[in-house]
Amino acid sequence: MNVLTLEDNSFDCNLALNQDADEHIVKLRKELEKKEKRWYEMRDRLVYRKVKDRVQFYVPSAMEYYVFIKMITNINLLT
Asked: What is the pTM (predicted TM-score) of this model?
């Protein structure tokens, strides 16, 4: 008997899939492959936004709602 187990994709996996589907990010990734940019960088094919002395995930528009809800949930859990 074969059993198939389905697991939720990790945030990084979902981010990568959604970045691949976002035309703006795909274009930006191609530019980053050729040269560095002041406000963006790429690590392991994920695009990040530089903010002061750190980098943050560059969230595709398709994931904005998901990330917003996740942030609110985490804040509510902390209070």
From this structure: 0.74
Q: In tens digits, what is the pLDDT along the chain, a chain of 79 residues? A: 665 555 566 888 889 999 999 999 999 999 999 999 999 999 999 999 999 999 999 999 999 998 888 888 888 776 6
Cα radius of gyration (the chain): 16
Tell me how many degrees the CA angle 71-64-26 measures, rounded to the nearest 5: 135
The domain ranges of the chain are: 11-78
Q: How many whole angstroms separate alpha carbon 71 and alpha carbon 76?
A: 9
Q: Which amino acid is at 11?
A: F
Q: Using CA atoms, how far apart are residues 73 and 66, in angstroms rounded to an integer?
A: 11
Find all residues with CB under 8 Å of 51, minimum gap 6, and list them.
none
Could you tell me if 41 and 55 are in contact, meaning their C-beta atoms sit under 8 angstroms apart? yes
